[in-house]
Design brief:
The chain has 297 residues and is α/β, with parallel strands linked by helices. Helices cover 38% and strands 21% of the residues. The model has no long low-confidence stretch (mean pLDDT 91).
Length: 297
């Protein structure tokens, strides 16, 4: 994509902040969506949970990227927090999609976040973008989240969904918590360790989003995961080796359920997800293996 004006929601998050750095480094103009009063022309006020955004702030944008949403792993899943997780994604996406559709000159592409949680528990079964949605809170949330983008798609805007896996990065997400544990020698497998974790290096996550922004022939869902998911047991061994620390501890499943509540299902569940459409589109991973990704982080 030539020098463009790109609106980014969720610009302060792990993925959003890295994407903004990448875009600005290449000379693109980034408009950040913020929840407070804007401090300049490069900020637009919005309230994702209430589904409110100023459409005028998106005028002239070549692309809109929505990565906003309350952190799935930030708190125990009370009913109130589950509602916040839902509203921050579904209402925010709907507001942006409506605003995009209403513009006289809409952007060329709308990239909306999603997650591999849409597939639910897959066990050892390998799944790609053709797999149906699973059952439970996260799969049902992801289905509704993606459907909320319909106004943009129906208005003829190329719409892409980034179904992201576990991002390997020191600055946040699941690995942001794992690195300190392993550094302290407190790392270990979770449950029986046989569950598959579908991961992606932060570098590759940003490169994939840039790839999807640039390729005008690509739309619909794309799994943003490395080509070969690994089990929790294998990942634990890699973390211990790379960080040169023992991994003697094991967190039993009942303890995880007691501490995390419903969210424990996401940690103990198995999701063996592969990026078929991304690979078919010609994308090349810089850090395809788990050891590559951990060392890069």
């Amino acid at each position: 994509m030539e020098r463009a004006r790109i609106a980014v929601a969720g610009a302060s998050g792990l993925i959003g902040s890295a994407l903004v750095r990448s875009l600005t480094a290449d000379g693109h103009e980034v408009v950040r969506l913020v929840r407070r009063a804007p401090r300049g022309t490069e900020e637009v006020r919005w309230d994702p949970e209430r589904g409110q955004v100023d459409p005028a702030g998106l005028a002239g944008c070549d692309a809109v990227v929505n990565l906003a949403g309350a952190g799935v792993g930030d708190q125990r899943w009370t009913e109130a927090y589950k509602r916040r997780i839902h509203d921050s994604r579904v209402h925010g996406t709907a507001a942006l999609a409506r605003a995009v559709a209403a513009l006289d000159e809409p952007p060329r592409v709308f990239v909306n976040g999603s997650a591999i949680g849409i597939y639910g528990e897959t066990g050892e079964r390998v799944v790609d973008e053709s797999a149906p949605a699973g059952h439970g809170f996260l799969p049902e949330l992801c289905v509704e989240w993606e459907a909320a983008a319909d106004p943009a798609r129906e208005a003829g805007v190329r719409t892409v969904f980034t179904r992201t896996g576990l991002v390997v990065a020191r600055g946040g997400g699941a690995w942001g918590r794992l690195f300190p544990l392993f550094a302290a020698g407190l790392g270990g497998r979770m449950g029986d360790g046989r569950q598959y974790w579908s991961f992606i290096a932060l570098h590759d996550e940003i490169a994939a989003i840039r790839h999807l922004l640039d390729r005008e022939d690509l739309s619909g869902p794309f799994n943003l995961t490395a080509p070969e998911p690994r089990t929790n047991r294998e990942i634990t061994a890699v973390m211990a080796r790379v960080m040169r620390r023992p991994a003697l501890f094991r967190v039993p499943a009942p303890v995880l359920r007691a501490v995390l509540g419903e969210m424990a299902g996401d940690v103990l569940g198995s999701a063996r997800v592969v990026p078929r459409r991304l690979l078919e589109s010609g994308f090349t991973f810089a850090f395809p293996g788990i050891e590559d990704a951990v060392r890069a982080a």
